[in-house]
Design brief:
The complex is a heterodimer.
Chain A (H helix, E strand, L loop, with lengths): L8 E5 L4 E6 L8 E7 L6 E6 L2 E4 L4 E4 L5 E6 L8 E8 L10 E6 L1
Parallel strand pairs in A: 1-9
Antiparallel strand pairs in A: 2-7, 3-4, 3-8, 5-6, 6-7, 8-9
Chain B lengths: L3 E4 L2 E4 L5 E7 L5 E7 L5 E7 L4 E3 L7 E4 L7 E4 L8 E8 L9 E2 L3 E5 L1
Parallel strand pairs in B: 2-11
Antiparallel strand pairs in B: 1-3, 3-8, 4-5, 4-9, 5-6, 7-8, 9-10, 9-11
Classes of the chains: A mainly beta, B mainly beta.
């Protein structure tokens, strides 16, 4: 059974760069990799997507190695408002399997 | 101007009852989804649906059935509710377009079965 795994939790101080890695060994050729942020009592919110190498937008960067079996979400200079649960999701024509989620806590 | 809305936000009911959760999206998207989030915060796909195809996660009991009266709505009907059905249910939608994989999620419906 394909499984998408992430570290359960991470802590970081304000102003630091945070990197969260997701393992998706069984990613399909057509799958893109997407990442979501979820605050308590809200639905997940899309952050970024990529297929390979590096993608950057106004809130994050996404690094994907050549074998695409993992991906790393990078959040630059985090603030308290970045405290949330982060999920990866390989998305394409195959079954949608969210990662196990990483609870990120930002410390003042 | 809510993009994806769900009703009700909270639903408390007894075992054995039948209930429905409604979902509407005003984004003009072609595909809609239902997810279940359990107490450990794991998000699991239940269904994805567009006007061409219904894809069912084979682990979903047949007590759960999606019903789509039109492209903007995908309701979730649950028969014979069980204690294990207690969870937060999220509706989502996305464009059916190549290389566009952003899903828009609703605020969730917290279902409690007693």
């Amino acid at each position: 059974l394909a499984k998408t795994t992430q570290p359960i939790s991470m802590d970081s101080y304000e102003g630091q760069e945070v990197n969260i890695t997701c393992s998706h060994n069984n990613i399909a050729t057509n799958d893109y990799i997407t990442w979501y942020q979820q605050f308590p009592s809200q639905g997940p919110r899309f952050i970024i997507q990529g297929y390979k190498t590096k993608v950057t937008n106004e809130v994050a960067s996404l690094f994907i190695p050549a074998d695409r079996k993992s991906s790393t979400l990078s959040l630059p200079r985090v603030s308290l408002s970045d405290t949330a649960v982060y999920y990866c999701l390989p998305f394409g024509n195959e079954k949608l399997t969210f990662g196990t989620g990483t609870r990120l806590t930002i410390i003042p | 101007d809510t993009a994806v809305s769900q009703t009700p936000k909270y639903l408390v009911t007894q075992m054995g009852n039948d209930k429905s959760i409604k979902c509407e999206q005003n984004l003009g998207h072609d595909t809609m989804y239902w997810y279940k989030q359990d107490s450990k915060k794991f998000l699991k796909i239940m269904f994805s649906y567009n006007n061409k195809e219904l894809i069912i996660n084979e682990t979903v009991p047949n007590r759960f059935s999606p019903k789509s009266p039109d492209k903007a709505h995908l309701n979730l009907h649950i028969n014979s509710l069980e204690l294990g059905d207690s969870a937060v249910y999220f509706c989502a939608s996305s464009q059916d377009k190549a290389e566009v994989y952003e899903q828009y999620f609703g605020p969730g419906t917290r279902l409690t079965v007693t």
